[in-house]
Amino acid sequence: xxxxxxxxxxxxxxxxxxxxxxxxxxxxxxxxxxxxxxxxxxxxxxxxxxxxxxxxxxxxxxxxxxxxxxxxxxxxxxxxxxxxxxxxxxxxxxxxxxxxxxxxxxxxxxxxxxxxxxxxxxxxxxxxxxxxxxxxxxxxxxxxxx
Length: 146
Hints:
With 146 residues, the chain is α+β, with helices and mostly antiparallel strands. The chain has one domain. Helix content is 34%, strand content 36%. It has three helices and nine strands; from the N terminus they run ααββββββββαβ. The strands form three sheets. It has a four-stranded antiparallel beta sheet with strand order 3-6-7-8, with helices on both faces. The protein starts with a helix and ends with a strand.
Protein backbone atom coordinates (compact mmCIF):
# COMPACT_ATOMS: atom_id res chain seq x y z
CA UNK A 1 0.00 0.00 0.00
CA UNK A 2 2.78 2.43 0.94
CA UNK A 3 4.71 1.69 -2.29
CA UNK A 4 1.55 2.27 -4.36
CA UNK A 5 1.07 5.66 -2.67
CA UNK A 6 4.70 6.60 -3.36
CA UNK A 7 4.35 5.55 -7.01
CA UNK A 8 1.11 7.55 -7.33
CA UNK A 9 2.75 10.64 -5.87
CA UNK A 10 5.74 10.25 -8.19
CA UNK A 11 3.44 9.99 -11.20
CA UNK A 12 1.45 13.06 -10.16
CA UNK A 13 4.67 15.03 -9.67
CA UNK A 14 6.02 13.82 -13.01
CA UNK A 15 2.90 14.80 -14.91
CA UNK A 16 2.66 18.17 -13.21
CA UNK A 17 6.29 18.87 -14.07
CA UNK A 18 5.89 17.64 -17.66
CA UNK A 19 2.80 19.74 -18.19
CA UNK A 20 4.38 22.99 -17.05
CA UNK A 21 7.92 22.81 -18.38
CA UNK A 22 8.96 24.30 -21.69
CA UNK A 23 10.79 22.28 -24.29
CA UNK A 24 14.43 23.26 -24.50
CA UNK A 25 15.58 22.94 -28.09
CA UNK A 26 13.50 19.90 -28.96
CA UNK A 27 11.87 19.20 -32.28
CA UNK A 28 8.36 17.93 -32.91
CA UNK A 29 9.13 14.27 -33.49
CA UNK A 30 6.32 11.90 -32.50
CA UNK A 31 6.91 8.41 -31.09
CA UNK A 32 4.60 5.62 -30.02
CA UNK A 33 4.96 4.37 -26.43
CA UNK A 34 6.35 1.11 -27.87
CA UNK A 35 9.04 2.96 -29.83
CA UNK A 36 9.87 4.96 -26.69
CA UNK A 37 10.37 1.72 -24.77
CA UNK A 38 12.55 0.30 -27.53
CA UNK A 39 14.74 3.41 -27.63
CA UNK A 40 15.23 3.41 -23.85
CA UNK A 41 16.10 -0.29 -23.69
CA UNK A 42 18.51 -0.10 -26.62
CA UNK A 43 20.18 3.22 -25.77
CA UNK A 44 19.87 3.62 -22.01
CA UNK A 45 20.14 7.11 -20.59
CA UNK A 46 23.00 9.41 -19.67
CA UNK A 47 22.72 11.88 -16.83
CA UNK A 48 24.13 15.41 -17.06
CA UNK A 49 26.95 14.46 -14.67
CA UNK A 50 28.13 11.70 -17.02
CA UNK A 51 26.63 8.70 -15.22
CA UNK A 52 24.71 6.22 -17.34
CA UNK A 53 21.69 4.07 -16.59
CA UNK A 54 21.27 0.93 -18.73
CA UNK A 55 17.63 -0.04 -18.96
CA UNK A 56 16.40 -3.61 -18.79
CA UNK A 57 12.64 -2.87 -18.72
CA UNK A 58 10.55 0.23 -19.29
CA UNK A 59 7.00 1.55 -19.27
CA UNK A 60 6.55 4.65 -21.44
CA UNK A 61 3.45 6.77 -20.94
CA UNK A 62 2.69 9.37 -23.58
CA UNK A 63 1.68 12.74 -22.14
CA UNK A 64 -1.64 13.63 -23.74
CA UNK A 65 -2.80 16.99 -25.00
CA UNK A 66 -3.13 18.88 -28.22
CA UNK A 67 0.52 20.01 -28.33
CA UNK A 68 2.15 16.71 -27.29
CA UNK A 69 0.00 14.07 -28.98
CA UNK A 70 -1.03 13.39 -32.55
CA UNK A 71 -2.77 10.55 -34.36
CA UNK A 72 -0.72 8.84 -37.05
CA UNK A 73 -1.62 5.60 -38.80
CA UNK A 74 -4.47 4.99 -36.37
CA UNK A 75 -2.17 5.17 -33.36
CA UNK A 76 -1.40 7.87 -30.82
CA UNK A 77 2.10 9.31 -31.14
CA UNK A 78 3.69 11.60 -28.55
CA UNK A 79 6.52 14.12 -28.18
CA UNK A 80 6.58 13.97 -24.37
CA UNK A 81 6.63 10.95 -22.08
CA UNK A 82 6.85 9.84 -18.49
CA UNK A 83 8.80 6.59 -18.21
CA UNK A 84 9.23 4.08 -15.41
CA UNK A 85 12.52 2.26 -15.99
CA UNK A 86 14.37 -0.61 -14.30
CA UNK A 87 18.10 -1.12 -14.70
CA UNK A 88 19.82 -4.49 -14.90
CA UNK A 89 20.87 -4.14 -11.25
CA UNK A 90 17.26 -3.58 -10.17
CA UNK A 91 17.23 0.19 -9.57
CA UNK A 92 13.94 1.82 -10.58
CA UNK A 93 13.61 5.42 -11.74
CA UNK A 94 10.92 7.60 -13.20
CA UNK A 95 12.07 9.84 -16.07
CA UNK A 96 10.04 13.02 -16.11
CA UNK A 97 9.63 15.59 -18.83
CA UNK A 98 11.12 13.11 -21.27
CA UNK A 99 11.01 14.63 -24.77
CA UNK A 100 11.79 13.38 -28.23
CA UNK A 101 14.43 15.31 -30.18
CA UNK A 102 14.37 13.30 -33.40
CA UNK A 103 13.86 9.81 -34.75
CA UNK A 104 16.47 8.35 -32.43
CA UNK A 105 17.06 11.21 -30.02
CA UNK A 106 15.57 12.11 -26.70
CA UNK A 107 16.27 14.11 -23.59
CA UNK A 108 14.82 14.03 -20.11
CA UNK A 109 14.85 16.95 -17.75
CA UNK A 110 14.25 15.26 -14.42
CA UNK A 111 14.62 11.82 -12.86
CA UNK A 112 13.73 10.36 -9.48
CA UNK A 113 14.98 7.15 -7.90
CA UNK A 114 11.91 5.18 -6.82
CA UNK A 115 13.57 1.98 -5.56
CA UNK A 116 17.16 0.85 -5.10
CA UNK A 117 16.15 -2.69 -6.01
CA UNK A 118 13.09 -4.33 -7.54
CA UNK A 119 13.13 -7.74 -9.19
CA UNK A 120 11.61 -7.94 -12.68
CA UNK A 121 8.39 -9.37 -11.21
CA UNK A 122 8.27 -6.68 -8.49
CA UNK A 123 8.79 -4.01 -11.15
CA UNK A 124 5.95 -5.42 -13.25
CA UNK A 125 3.61 -5.83 -10.27
CA UNK A 126 4.26 -2.39 -8.80
CA UNK A 127 4.90 -0.11 -11.75
CA UNK A 128 2.89 -1.86 -14.49
CA UNK A 129 -0.51 -1.01 -12.91
CA UNK A 130 0.68 2.53 -12.12
CA UNK A 131 1.78 2.99 -15.73
CA UNK A 132 -1.55 1.65 -17.05
CA UNK A 133 -3.53 3.95 -14.76
CA UNK A 134 -1.42 6.95 -15.74
CA UNK A 135 -1.71 6.11 -19.45
CA UNK A 136 -5.51 5.93 -19.17
CA UNK A 137 -5.53 9.35 -17.48
CA UNK A 138 -3.29 10.82 -20.19
CA UNK A 139 -5.44 9.38 -23.00
CA UNK A 140 -8.46 11.15 -21.53
CA UNK A 141 -6.72 14.48 -22.28
CA UNK A 142 -7.28 14.05 -25.98
CA UNK A 143 -5.00 14.13 -28.97
CA UNK A 144 -4.60 16.39 -32.00
CA UNK A 145 -6.41 15.15 -35.11
CA UNK A 146 -4.45 16.22 -38.23
